[in-house]
Amino acid sequence: LPEADSDLDDHFAYLLGESPSAAFRFLESADKTFRLLSQQPSIGYLRRNAKPSLKDIRSFPVTGFPNWLVFYRPTTNEIEIVRILHGATNIPRILGEDL
Protein backbone atom coordinates (compact mmCIF):
# COMPACT_ATOMS: atom_id res chain seq x y z
CA LEU A 1 0.00 0.00 0.00
CA PRO A 2 1.17 3.57 -0.58
CA GLU A 3 1.24 4.31 3.14
CA ALA A 4 3.64 1.42 3.76
CA ASP A 5 5.92 2.61 0.94
CA SER A 6 5.89 6.09 2.43
CA ASP A 7 6.62 4.70 5.89
CA LEU A 8 9.62 2.77 4.59
CA ASP A 9 10.96 5.85 2.80
CA ASP A 10 10.46 8.03 5.89
CA HIS A 11 12.20 5.57 8.22
CA PHE A 12 15.07 5.16 5.77
CA ALA A 13 15.49 8.95 5.51
CA TYR A 14 15.46 9.32 9.29
CA LEU A 15 18.04 6.58 9.78
CA LEU A 16 20.16 7.92 6.93
CA GLY A 17 20.56 11.16 8.87
CA GLU A 18 21.58 9.24 11.99
CA SER A 19 23.67 6.45 10.48
CA PRO A 20 23.87 5.66 6.75
CA SER A 21 24.95 2.07 7.43
CA ALA A 22 21.97 1.55 9.75
CA ALA A 23 19.64 2.98 7.11
CA PHE A 24 20.79 0.46 4.50
CA ARG A 25 20.67 -2.38 7.04
CA PHE A 26 17.09 -1.33 7.83
CA LEU A 27 16.07 -1.65 4.16
CA GLU A 28 17.73 -5.06 3.88
CA SER A 29 16.12 -6.21 7.13
CA ALA A 30 12.70 -4.94 6.06
CA ASP A 31 12.99 -6.91 2.82
CA LYS A 32 13.99 -10.06 4.74
CA THR A 33 11.06 -9.54 7.09
CA PHE A 34 8.61 -9.16 4.19
CA ARG A 35 9.88 -12.40 2.64
CA LEU A 36 9.60 -14.22 5.97
CA LEU A 37 6.04 -12.99 6.46
CA SER A 38 5.14 -14.05 2.92
CA GLN A 39 6.38 -17.56 3.68
CA GLN A 40 4.89 -17.76 7.18
CA PRO A 41 2.00 -15.27 7.32
CA SER A 42 0.62 -16.54 10.62
CA ILE A 43 3.77 -15.81 12.68
CA GLY A 44 2.80 -12.21 13.38
CA TYR A 45 0.80 -11.12 16.40
CA LEU A 46 -2.91 -10.96 15.57
CA ARG A 47 -4.10 -7.51 16.61
CA ARG A 48 -7.37 -7.44 18.53
CA ASN A 49 -9.65 -4.67 17.35
CA ALA A 50 -13.40 -4.29 17.07
CA LYS A 51 -13.08 -2.10 13.99
CA PRO A 52 -14.02 -4.19 10.90
CA SER A 53 -11.37 -2.56 8.70
CA LEU A 54 -8.67 -3.78 11.11
CA LYS A 55 -9.83 -7.40 10.97
CA ASP A 56 -7.00 -9.86 10.38
CA ILE A 57 -4.25 -7.25 10.83
CA ARG A 58 -1.08 -8.78 12.24
CA SER A 59 2.17 -7.19 13.38
CA PHE A 60 5.75 -8.40 13.40
CA PRO A 61 9.00 -6.56 14.17
CA VAL A 62 11.48 -5.75 11.45
CA THR A 63 14.34 -8.23 11.91
CA GLY A 64 17.13 -6.53 13.84
CA PHE A 65 15.03 -3.40 14.39
CA PRO A 66 12.52 -4.43 17.08
CA ASN A 67 11.16 -0.91 17.53
CA TRP A 68 9.76 -0.89 14.00
CA LEU A 69 6.69 -3.02 13.38
CA VAL A 70 5.29 -4.28 10.10
CA PHE A 71 1.49 -4.27 10.07
CA TYR A 72 0.13 -6.63 7.47
CA ARG A 73 -2.90 -8.61 6.41
CA PRO A 74 -2.53 -12.16 5.07
CA THR A 75 -4.51 -12.73 1.87
CA THR A 76 -5.13 -15.90 -0.11
CA ASN A 77 -1.77 -16.06 -1.87
CA GLU A 78 0.32 -13.28 -0.34
CA ILE A 79 0.44 -10.62 2.34
CA GLU A 80 -0.64 -7.01 2.13
CA ILE A 81 1.77 -4.69 3.95
CA VAL A 82 -0.44 -2.03 5.52
CA ARG A 83 2.01 0.13 7.49
CA ILE A 84 5.53 0.08 8.94
CA LEU A 85 5.48 2.04 12.19
CA HIS A 86 7.81 2.83 15.04
CA GLY A 87 6.57 1.40 18.32
CA ALA A 88 6.72 4.80 20.03
CA THR A 89 4.04 6.25 17.75
CA ASN A 90 0.33 6.22 18.56
CA ILE A 91 -0.33 3.03 16.62
CA PRO A 92 -4.08 2.70 17.36
CA ARG A 93 -4.68 6.27 16.21
CA ILE A 94 -2.61 5.88 13.05
CA LEU A 95 -4.16 2.55 12.07
CA GLY A 96 -7.62 3.81 12.92
CA GLU A 97 -7.22 6.80 10.63
CA ASP A 98 -5.79 4.85 7.71
CA LEU A 99 -8.01 1.80 7.53
Question: How would you briefly describe this protein structure?
Answer:
The chain has helices at residues 2-18, 20-39, 91-98, and strands spanning 45-46, 58-62, 65-74, 79-86.
Features:
99 residues, YaeB-like fold, 4-stranded antiparallel beta sheet, globular
Structure, described:
This protein has helices at 2-18, 20-39, 91-98; strands at residues 45-46, 58-62, 65-74, 79-86. It is α+β, with helices and mostly antiparallel strands. It has one domain: RelE-like (YaeB-like fold). A four-stranded antiparallel beta sheet has the order 1-2-3-4. β2 (58-62) and β3 form a beta hairpin. The longest helix is centred in the first third of the chain and has 20 residues, at 20-39.
SS-based class: alpha+beta
Order of helices and strands: HHEEEEH
Helix percentage range? 40-55%
Give the CATH level 1 class.
Alpha Beta
What share of residues are in beta strands? 25-35%
Which CATH-level-2 architecture? 2-Layer Sandwich
CATH topology (level 3) name = YaeB-like fold
Largest sheet: 4 strands, antiparallel
Distance between the termini: 11 Å
What best-fitting shape do the alpha-carbon axes yield? Answer: globular
Strand order of the largest sheet: 1-2-3-4
Tally of DSSP helical segments = 3
Radius of gyration: 13 Å
Mean pLDDT: 91
Residue runs with pLDDT of under 50 for 5 or more positions:
none
Q: Structurally, how many domains make up the residues? A: 1
Q: Can you say what the CATH homologous superfamily is?
A: RelE-like
Secondary structure: number of strands: 4
